[in-house]
C-alpha cells in the first residue's frame, strides 16, 4: 500500500484477487516461498511520458501518457489504451492487473498490460485527435512490437484512434507490422468480430450462466449501462439470444425504452453522430430520457454494467435486488464496488466478474494476432463461433475451479483462482524474474 500510495482503484483490484487466494496458497507452499503473489502484483515495467500537441486554434496542450507492462509470463503484454480525463497511474495499473488474469482465462498465449492518457477526445475534431495520437505514438512506439507489447482500444479509443496510432507507428518504424496493435480496420489487418467481441462475449457468458441452471435469455428484461463499444454490441447479441434490453446510458443519463432498444437508432446516434444518449429518446417515441439518475433503478432480470469502474455501488445493488434482478454480468472492468458485490452475494444474485465476462474482446484480439501472423482472414461466422466457444469455456473453467476450491457457484473465486494459477505456474517456472 505504501509503495502505491493513492492508487485507490489498484488497491481495490488487488484486494479483490487476494481475497480469493488463501485456498490456493494453502495448497502451494512454493508460491509463498518464492513470493509469487508479490511479484505478480508488481508491474514488470511502467512507462509515463509527456504528450504535447496543438489544437485547431494553435493552442498547445500537454497530456500525460502511460503504458504499464504488467506481466509477460504467458505472452507479449496485451491490453487496451484508454483516453479519458480520469486516467492516472492508479487506473492504468488496476486495469493492467485485471488484464493479466483475464488474458490467462482466455487460454491464449498473451500477457497483460494497459495504457492510455488523460486526453479527452470528446468534442475534439478528427484533426486534433490525429495530432494527439501521433504525438502519443511518437513515444510509445519504442516500447511496442508484435512479440513485446500489443495495445488495443478501450474507453475513448475506437477504430478512428487505432487507425491514427497504427499509421504513426508504421511511419516511424517503416514496418507494416500488423500484429503490433489490434482493433484495426478490416482493410488493413483487422479481424471480423473484433468490434462486436466484448459485448457479444458478455452476452454469451450470461447465456452460459443461465444455461447452467436451465434458463435462457428468453423473455428476460435486461439493462446495459453505457452506450459505447461494449454496450452497443451487448444490446445486439442479447436481442439475438431472445432477451429485451430496456435501458442504456451515457455519462449524462439513461434512456428507457419498454419496446426494447432500437439498435439501428442507437448505432446511428452513438457510432455515426457521436451524439448524447438523450438524442435516442428524441427519435424513438416509446423511449424516455432520464437526466442524471441511476440506470439501476430500472427493474430488470439481468444487469450488464458496461460503462466504467465503480459505476454500480451498494445502494444501486440493493435496488437491483429489491426489483428482482437475478444476474449481474460485468461488461466493463470492475464496474461493481466491493459493497455491491457483497449485496449480490447476500441476495443470491448470480454474479460474473469482468475479468471473466468481458474477456471476449481480448480473446478476439488474440484471434486477430493469429490471423495477422498467418496472413489469413477468417469469416465472421468462423470467428464468432471461436468467440462463443472461448466464452463458454471460460465459464466452465471458472465454475469448475470454484467447485474444486470449495465454493460452488462463486465465479469471482473461480476466475481469480483459475487466472492466478495459470500465471503463477509460468512465473514460477521462469525462475526469479
Ligand atoms: P467506450 O468509450 O466505447 O464507451 C464507454 C461508455 O461508458 C460511454 O457510453 C460513456 O459515456 C460511458 N462512460 C464512460 N465513463 C463514464 C463515467 N465516468 N460515468 C458514466 N458513464 C461513463 O468504451 P468501451 O465500451 O470500449 O468500454 C466500456 C468498459 O468496458 C470499460 O470499463 C472498458 O475498460 C471495458 N472493456 C472494454 C473492452 C473493449 O473491447 N472495448 C474490452 C474489455 C473491457 P460518455 O460518452 O458520456 O462518456
Automatic annotation (TrEMBL):
One of its GO terms (molecular function) is glutamate dehydrogenase (NADP+) activity. Pfam families: ELFV_dehydrog (PF00208), ELFV_dehydrog_N (PF02812). Substrate binds at residues 78, 99, 102, 153, 365. Keywords: NAD, Nucleotide-binding, Oxidoreductase. InterPro entries: Aminoacid_DH-like_N_sf, Glu/Leu/Phe/Val/Trp_DH, Glu/Leu/Phe/Val/Trp_DH_C, Glu/Leu/Phe/Val/Trp_DH_dimer, Glu_DH, Glu_Leu_Phe_Val_DH, NAD(P)-bd_dom_sf, NAD_bind_Glu_DH. Homohexamer. This is Glutamate dehydrogenase.
